[in-house]
Amino acid sequence: MIGPGSHEELIARIRNRDVRAVARVISTLENNPRFAREFITKLSPFHQKKPRFGITGSPGVGKSTLVNHLVRQLREQEKRVGIVAVDPTSPFSGGAILGDRIRMLDVQNDPNVYIRSLGSRGSLGGLSAATANIVRVLEVFGVDFMLIETVGMGQTGFDIVDIADTVALVLSPESGDGVQTMKAGVMEVADIYAVNKADRPGADGLITEIISLLGMLDSPKEWKPPVLKMSALEGSGVSQLLDSFFEHQAFLAEHGLAATRRRHQIAREIRFIVESRVERLLTGETKHKATLDDLAEKVQRGELDTYSAAGVLIGMIINSLRDEEIHEET
Amino acid sequence: MIGPGSHEELIARIRNRDVRAVARVISTLENNPRFAREFITKLSPFHQKKPRFGITGSPGVGKSTLVNHLVRQLREQEKRVGIVAVDPTSPFSGGAILGDRIRMLDVQNDPNVYIRSLGSRGSLGGLSAATANIVRVLEVFGVDFMLIETVGMGQTGFDIVDIADTVALVLSPESGDGVQTMKAGVMEVADIYAVNKADRPGADGLITEIISLLGMLDSPKEWKPPVLKMSALEGSGVSQLLDSFFEHQAFLAEHGLAATRRRHQIAREIRFIVESRVERLLTGETKHKATLDDLAEKVQRGELDTYSAAGVLIGMIINSLRDEEIHEET
Questions:
Q1: Residues contacting residue B221 through CB under 8 Å, at least 6 positions apart
Q2: What is the reported pTM?
Q3: Which domain holds residue B29?
Q4: Is the CB of A295 less than 8 angstroms away from the CB of B60?
């Protein structure tokens, strides 16, 4: 599946900046959990985290155009950039998602920019784990800066906060999602607010609204999230966005928060791996699937209740997980 | 926690249409998974499913007003109605969510209408399991008809298809979510399309768009989803919506699809129970939580990789699940 070469060889090729090796490993990581487990275990000693900037917002606010400009600025600073675009609402992975990538064509031929898009593949814990692994591979590959772009926030199970150091929430006056439609928890998460399409009517009102809502937040953080105006189409305001990112990085480091954030991310990632393994046992075309169908039929006929059925299934899963662990150790 | 009375007594009171018993049981079901397990096991023999109508759509399309009208029509037919409003994006449960309920005040004093709102409480599998149980309790309580209202569709982990027999997707010309923003999988799921605010500009265009997209779907179903025009504010089109629901119910029964759908729902529900039990072991303030923090620190220091850490955790979870099962049997 992964083609010729042991894991060690593949790691060596990735460290040598072999784009084809990276592409192949990433695809296999997504599709083959067993490979992911073995490969990431071997890759980990070579991994060092790079700055990770998360960009999120509703569809149509101009995230991709913004990312395009950020990449250009980072390229002017001779930085190698990795981009992972995660769309938890799309079942598609790999190539283009939703046509957004078309706008990125001008950076797509630059060998120092590596772009990858990721769809949900049906599993949300799986999506978080896959994204973390892809970012890790790109960091070993030698990017200096990671951009992680995602649709929405806190509503899809995939949480950009689990991957990025700093998260910018992009809003636009005409996206129809004013601050009033934001749900509890969303406002608290962003470290930077980027009001895009700032030349359109309603931009100033939106900014006032954000600032007043930020003032109302229960837990005032020591970091005061900047509210920036920009026009991604013209490229204005983009350098302030990048500056704010680096200011936030410095803030996290100064206050000893970078390590704490990172530890929470790792804890969540470990949790996702455990959850995906259980999920896989329940959804794959395994013997458990057949058992589940049988159990459902019994519940439907009134011979069993859902909780007793779950108990039977848990017994089987315990055995499978134990078998996998034993197999792993030998 | 649940107050005086054994499970058997509570079930008897619910079957006797004791509203206070229902309210108390539902709150406890949400907050106490152990109670849920014991109570639902005992309730199951008394349960019989009632017609369940799911209403979904983006925020602001007028779902609540529509539900309000549906309730009125069902009340004219002397039907007792249960409503569960699920908002996976809100952390709030119980009382009002997002002010929507205010519009339902005119039905809230009717003893034959039971309304309950449910927020995410952080767990999506948990939300589906909780909703299924609440619907079950209301059906034992004696409602003739269940309305399940939820925000969004297929993007939040909570899937209305797991609970409802028939799902109506509500759209509005000015909600900004034209058909083009709908993701793969969303269009396929709805059994009925309700274009609300049909007097506003763009309504006819939206209808044309839906019909043409429905024609393009890969898998033409035998059921041809109707595309209905309505104005929830004025109440027009609401009876057609209810008629379409009953037509779809008849269609499912005629084609032997009702039982198959229901079996799939039960299978998913069993899966959610299993997943929530594992999730609880990972997120609760248990010894596993402490272990997870320790493991994350080791990964951060480079002494361990995420997959080996997950392996350690799985070993501990196997033991806990086994202990729970043994405890259950004795």
A1: none
A2: 0.72
A3: 1-46
A4: no
What pLDDT, on a 0 to 100 scale, did the predictor assign at position B200? Answer: 87
CA atoms of A214 and B263, how far apart (whole Å): 47
SS3 A195: strand
For B195-222, what is the mean pLDDT? 81
Structure tokens belonging to residue B153: 């569709």
Determine contact: B37 vs chain A, CB below 8 A.
yes
- Tell me the one-letter amino acid at A58: S
Coil, strand, or helix at residue A231?
A: strand
**Is it the case that residue B277 has pLDDT exceeding 50?**
yes
Chain A contacts in chain B segment 161-220 (CB below 8 A): 175-176, 181, 183-185
Neighbours of A232 (CB within 10 A): 26
**Rounded Cα gap, residues A271 and B292, in angstroms:** 8
Q: Is B300 helix (H, G, I), strand (E, B) or coil?
A: helix
The answer on pLDDT for A329 being more than 60 is no
Looking at residues A63-78, what average pLDDT do you find? Answer: 91
Comparing alpha-carbon positions, the chain A residue that sits nearest to B97 is: A183
Copy the structure tokens of residue A300. 């439907």
Structural domain includes residue B264: no
Whether residue B81 sits in one domain with residue B41:
no
Q: What is the pLDDT of residue A95?
A: 43
Residue B179 located in a structural domain: yes
Q: CA A275 to CA B241: how far, in whole Å?
A: 40
pLDDT digits (tens, 9 = 90+) for B144-181: 999 999 876 544 556 788 899 999 999 888 765 555 55
Residues B101 and B220 in one domain: yes
Residue B326 confidence (pLDDT) above 80: no
Handedness of CA A103, A109, A110, A115 (dihedral sign): positive
A179 in any annotated domain: yes
List Cα–Cα distances, A217 to A37, A184, B92, in angstroms.
40, 10, 17
Cβ A86 vs Cβ B153: under 8 Å: no
Please name the residue of chain B whose CA is at the shortest distance from the CA of residue A33.
B307
Q: Collapsing DSSP states into helix, strand and coil, what is residue B117?
A: strand
